[in-house]
């Protein structure tokens, strides 16, 4: 199970919520294990998970008939499903169904509700939740569906609850930590695969193909693939092109896939041949900043204090004009979970938070350099997921 139920219920009690409704793709998966494909690939499709407070009823999933079969083929721990919308799936006559198809047939036999909100209203009514204060994650529900829900049950007080889920997701369960560790290490192996094809004349697309192929071979799915050469490395979100690798070029990776739904986001740098002195100096400086973050992070430390120390370290160690808006972020089902490592952050590190810490530097006409690691906050400090170092690799 992915969800940190105790933490979520703590926040619900604090906010006086009788139930919360997950609507954003990350929160639906987090709350139930259900990965509703249509939600992840385009805007608008509705999938919900209703999570009543303890003693107020069992959780349930609201799913479109067109993707309901994925519930049967995934590690979903919520048993009750409310199906909506019409979609035709035929069944062969006289053929015995396997276990998965039997589950699909049972899901397709559930009562059909007209739309997502009608199904959610029925689920609320069945649990005696037609009145009271309900938190609804505002990120996945469309404005028209929100209005429809409010009109259908005027006795409800609807409260925006995306922040409730973000707060709950900030401290990971052991299963989440295991998946995030595997995802980060798969990204490392994929960088190794990309660098194995890095030679003069190879293109950014050649390295991207090698990177993503290794991610898929390792059981992941491609998501993030910023891979650039030379001055193109200064493009913050560089997308691989036909630019060929030349002697003396910097190669920058800001990359990561998705493993069992959980994201990776790491960064490494290499060079074809020995880099110039400025590249070497700046790279040492940003590495020193990353090392300072590693040393500081532990429960009770303020994210803003880590930001200040990292900035001071990078400037002192050879990049005096270094400037950043943040030096890291949480990661999980979303690439940017809480906490945020910014100068104005109010976040305080807690045991079980998983963080990406990073010290990028971008200079147009020169190069971009970036080191980024993933770690989990432990009782006594931080445990890095990384098996490779951040040194500038020479290929």
TrEMBL record:
Q: Which InterPro entries match?
A: Creatin/AminoP/Spt16_N, Creatinase/aminopeptidase-like, Creatinase_N, Pept_M24, Peptidase_M24B
According to the entry, what is the taxonomic lineage of the organism? Answer: Bacteria, Pseudomonadati, Pseudomonadota, Alphaproteobacteria, Hyphomicrobiales
Q: Which Pfam families match?
A: Creatinase_N, Peptidase_M24
* Gene3D superfamilies the UniProt entry points to: Creatinase/methionine aminopeptidase superfamily, Creatinase/prolidase N-terminal domain
**Which organism encodes this protein?**
Rhodoplanes tepidamans (Rhodoplanes cryptolactis)
Indicate the segments forming the Creatinase N-terminal domain, all copies. Answer: 6-171
- PANTHER family, alphabetized: AMINOPEPTIDASE, AMINOPEPTIDASE YPDF
User: SUPFAM superfamilies given for it?
Assistant: Creatinase/aminopeptidase (SSF55920), Creatinase/prolidase N-terminal domain (SSF53092)
The Peptidase M24 domain is annotated at: 179-378
Q: What is this protein called?
A: Xaa-Pro peptidase family protein
């Amino acid at each position: 199970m992915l969800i940190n139920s105790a933490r979520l219920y703590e926040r619900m009690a604090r906010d006086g919520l009788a139930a919360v409704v997950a609507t954003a793709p990350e929160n639906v998966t987090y709350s139930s294990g259900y990965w509703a494909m249509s939600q992840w690939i385009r805007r608008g499709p509705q999938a919900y998970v209703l999570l009543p407070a303890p003693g107020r009823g069992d959780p349930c999933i609201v799913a479109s008939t067109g993707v309901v079969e994925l519930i049967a083929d995934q590690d979903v721990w919520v048993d009750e499903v409310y199906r909506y919308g019409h979609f035709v799936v035929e069944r062969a006559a006289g053929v015995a169904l396997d276990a998965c198809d039997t589950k699909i047939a049972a899901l397709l036999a559930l009562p059909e509700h007209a739309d997502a909100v009608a199904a959610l209203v029925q689920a609320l009514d069945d649990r005696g939740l037609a009145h009271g204060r309900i938190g609804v994650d505002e990120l996945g529900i469309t404005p028209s569906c929100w209005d429809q829900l409010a009109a259908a049950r005027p006795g409800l007080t609807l409260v925006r609850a995306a922040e409730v889920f973000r707060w709950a997701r900030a401290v990971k369960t052991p299963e989440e930590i295991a998946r995030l560790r595997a995802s980060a290490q798969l990204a490392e192996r994929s960088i190794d695969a990309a660098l194995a094809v890095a030679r003069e004349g190879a293109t950014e697309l050649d390295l991207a193909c090698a990177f993503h192929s290794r991610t898929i071979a390792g059981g992941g799915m491609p998501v993030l693939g910023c891979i650039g050469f030379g001055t193109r490395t200064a493009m913050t979100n560089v997308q691989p092109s036909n630019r060929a690798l030349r002697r003396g070029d910097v190669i920058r990776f800001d990359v990561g896939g998705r493993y069992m739904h959980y994201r990776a986001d790491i960064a490494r740098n290499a060079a074809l041949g020995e880099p110039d002195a400025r590249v070497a100096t700046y790279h040492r400086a940003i590495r020193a900043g990353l090392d300072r973050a590693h040393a500081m992070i532990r429960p009770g430390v303020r994210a803003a204090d880590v930001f200040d120390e990292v900035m001071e370290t990078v400037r002192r160690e050879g990049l005096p004009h270094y400037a950043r808006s943040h030096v890291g972020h949480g990661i999980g089902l979303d690439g940017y979970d809480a906490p945020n490592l910014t100068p104005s952050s109010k976040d305080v590190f807690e045991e079980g938070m998983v963080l990406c810490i990073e010290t990028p530097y971008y200079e147009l006409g020169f190069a971009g350099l970036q080191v980024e690691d993933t770690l989990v906050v432990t009782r006594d400090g931080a445990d890095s997921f990384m098996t490779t170092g951040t040194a500038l690799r020479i290929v």
